[in-house]
Amino acid sequence: MIPRRIVESLRVEPGKRLHLADRDPGWALTKELRTLGKEAVKERAERILADNLRTLTAAQALLWASNKQAVLMILQGMDAAGKDGIVKHVMSGMNPQGCDVHAFKQPTPEEIDHDFLWRCQKRVPERGRIGIFNRSWYEDVLVLRVHPERVPHGALAGAKSPEKFWEQRYDSIREYERHLARNGTTIVKFFLHISKDEQKRRFLERLDDPDKQWKFSVGDITERGYWDDYQRAYELALSATSTKHAPWYVVPADHKWIARAVVADVLATAIGDLDLAAPRPDKEQKKRLAEAKRSLLAE
Predict the structure, then answer these.
(1) pLDDT per residue as tens digits for the range 82-103
(2) What are the residue ranges of helices labelled H in the chain?
(3) Residues 184 and 127: beta-carbon distance below 8 Å
(4) Closest C-alpha to 46, from 250, 262, 222
(5) What is the pTM of this model?
(6) How far apart are the C-alpha atoms of 9 and 252, rounded to whole Å?
(7) pLDDT by residue (tens digit) across 115-155?
(8) What is the Cα–Cα distance from 129 to 99, expressed in whole angstroms?
């Protein structure tokens, strides 16, 4: 497990302004680990990931069996930050029957005609399940803040001020996430913090590899041109919506193995903190179980 003090250093403290320039996307866990060199750090991160995958497998079984609470993991980040890789590697040990993954792309006309939370609300996990959102309702305070011309039906123009419009959306997100938490959904949110240089390297890797070219979109280059605007939008959104019941973690993502280890560790801890236990049969159920056993033995 990663020491709690290190994990807590990644959390966005509620009520405080986040400055991404102060967060190192190439971070290597601790000063001690940085002195070991890349390969040693990578090996240690992979051991942490493996340990946490075993913990997650057991925790998911208890979550499913108890059927009292749900877990929602939200992933956000710039293009090529590693969201798909997190889903693939961190969730690899999960029972697919109890885990749902939803990747939210550009909204459909039907989704645009509803309130901005609607399309994601439909996918919130039920009790006993883990839900993973690859992008989420936060797109509507990130992409649309960078491109306000895309806000539907002139809603932005109809607000008292653009700033008031975004504050109202942050309010809606905070209120809805608090509603979910009150009703038994544990929420953990991860911003995969990648540097502009590392994004460039990954884009070039995709372009040079025929097996990865399908991942690349010309639109990725267009959005890269708004890098500074996106960084500011993330700072504002994460600062406004990191709460005790739905915290944000800024995960260093320049090294995929570090990002995966951190996400798995935080998720395993969050589920472990639920103090789940397998349900125990009551007196009447024990009687029926005993009858079933006698029936089987008599065959």
Answers:
(1) 999 999 988 887 888 889 999 9
(2) 4-10, 31-34, 38-66, 83-90, 109-112, 118-121, 143-146, 155-158, 162-182, 196-208, 218-224, 227-241, 256-272, 283-297
(3) yes
(4) 262
(5) 0.91
(6) 11
(7) 999 999 999 999 999 999 999 999 999 999 999 989 987 67
(8) 6
